[in-house]
Amino acid sequence: MPKIARSDDNLVVVPTNVSILSNGYVYYNISTHPRRSAVDGHVYYDHKKECIGVLRDKADKTKEGKRWMYANSNYFAILDKDSMPERPDRDDCISVGLHAAVREVSDRSGLDAILTEVFGVEDACLVLDLATYMLSEGSAVFQHVPHWCRDHAIFTEKIPSDTAIGNFERKHLSYSLINQFKEKWARHSLDDGKIYLCYDSTNINSQAEGVFLVQKGYAKDDPSLEQVNTDYVIRQRDGLPVTYTAYPGSITDMAEASEITQFFRDLIQKDGAETTGQMDLDITQIADRGYISEDNVRDLDQAGIHFLFMLRRNMGITDDLLEIYAHEVKSSRYYFEEEDQYGMTVPGRLWQDDEKERYFHIIRVLLPGHNDLR
User: Fold this and answer.
1) How many CB atoms lie within 10 A of CB 284?
2) Count of CB atoms situated within 10 Å of the CB of 82
3) Can you give the pLDDT at residue 100?
4) What pLDDT is stored for residue 63 in this prediction?
5) Are residues 223 and 312 in the same domain?
6) Which domain-ending residue is among 83, 105, 139?
7) Is the CB of residue 364 less than 8 Å from the CB of residue 331?
8) 211 pLDDT tier (thresholds 50, 70, 90)
């Protein structure tokens, strides 16, 4: 119930069409709905009521029979709207902590400059506001953004409406602009061109219908659900996201890996053409055993990208290496004190007709209860 100021300047005459309770509170009948009894067919009336104030004195009446009451905000909103002050755009208390953090990160990383270059100042600010909202609420339900903006510091000059956000998503946010941003951001993240990139993927189950990306695949959590696959690449030294790609749930990891390789191949070719003599590109991609295949390795070679992959146990080269070097790697001369591990690096060919010599890193990992190579 809204608070009631019991002061003389808040006294108003009790209006008609009200109900007064025994405790003096005054309720205004906003609407009346007829309802017919299912038993005897009699018509009853339901009233929707709102408390609009409280009597000053139950026995207090003017000569004209009028009674006085202290009004609350409902009274002015329902019966005297002209006297209501305009609602301020922002609340009295504004949360600024997350906004300050996002601003600092976006400034230092160069994110705001790239967003502005691709989307323009106004839309770039909106992107940062939407990102901050998702970080704050853990949700992408943008219909709540205008309400959230009332008590949070924002990048845009005024609180965006549902219509403004919808227009941005439908009219201003195109695949060409997204790809342009991804390309510029990835090139920016390469630093001086000598960089390690960690690559992995995940899948997200979905019950959405009519969405092309949502398809049957190998879902780890719930095989009965369709899924969307997402690949992501981060910078190894600090975990900075470099790029991402969404795929239909039916696409395999190896097929996805070829797409990421193509992305960096195009990036290297464009970057080399634009910065010839200024950047010596030396990219190394790190990934787990799910992405190693002859086709992917050849693609990486052609793209000029180095790689560090785990070998699959079912690859013939794995057993060959273990048979030759398993006992030798246990020798104390291959112990690295700073890592507390035994390891060695040997040259070889990844497959029989491999034209390029590779280097294989063999690490002795001791598991609890075991004293052999894993």
Assistant:
1) 15
2) 5
3) 96
4) 54
5) yes
6) 83
7) no
8) confident
Residues 207 and 332 occupy one common structural domain: yes
Q: Which of 70-84, 132-146, 317-331, 359-373 has the lowest mean pLDDT?
A: 359-373
Is the pLDDT at 374 greater than 60? The verdict is: no
Q: Could you tell me if residue 258 is inside a domain?
A: yes
- How many CB atoms are located within 10 Å of the residue 352 CB? 7
CATH number of the domain bearing residue 215: 3.30.420
3-class secondary structure, 276: coil
Residue where a domain stops, chosen among 57, 83, 109:
83
- 255 phi, psi to nearest 5 deg: -65, -40
Residues 213 and 110 in one domain: no
Same domain, 202 and 333: yes
- The answer to whether residue 2 is domain-embedded is no
Mean pLDDT (whole number) for 248-266: 87
In a domain, 92, yes or no: no
Tokens of 315: 């690859």
Q: Residues in the chain, how many?
A: 374
Residue 111's φ and ψ, nearest 5 degrees, are -65, -45
Q: Is 258 exposed, middle or buried (0-12, 13-18, 19+ CB in 10 A)?
A: middle
- 3-class DSSP assignment, residue 226: strand
Q: How many CB atoms lie within 10 A of CB 297?
A: 19
Q: Are residues 150 and 52 in the same domain?
A: no
Cα separation, 129 vs 131, whole angstroms = 5
- What's the number of domains the chain is made of? 3
Q: Give which of 65, 72, 58, 102 is closest to 10, Cα–Cα.
A: 72
Residue 34 lies in domain = 8-83
Q: What is the pTM of this model?
A: 0.68
* 68, 127: one domain: no
How far CA 370 is from CA of 137, 328, 336, 361, in Å, comes to 46, 17, 20, 21
Computed from CA positions of residues 213, 214, 215, 218, in that sequence, does the dihedral angle turn out positive or negative?
Answer: positive
* CA angle, residues 316, 328, 362, in degrees to nearest 5: 50
* 68 shares its domain with 103: no
Q: Check whether residue 199 and residue 329 sit in a common domain.
A: yes
- pLDDT tens digits along 223-236: 778 899 999 999 98
Helix or strand run (H / E) with residue 334: none
> pLDDT tens digits, residue range 177-208?
999 999 999 989 887 778 899 999 888 888 88
* Residue 256, in any domain of the structure: yes
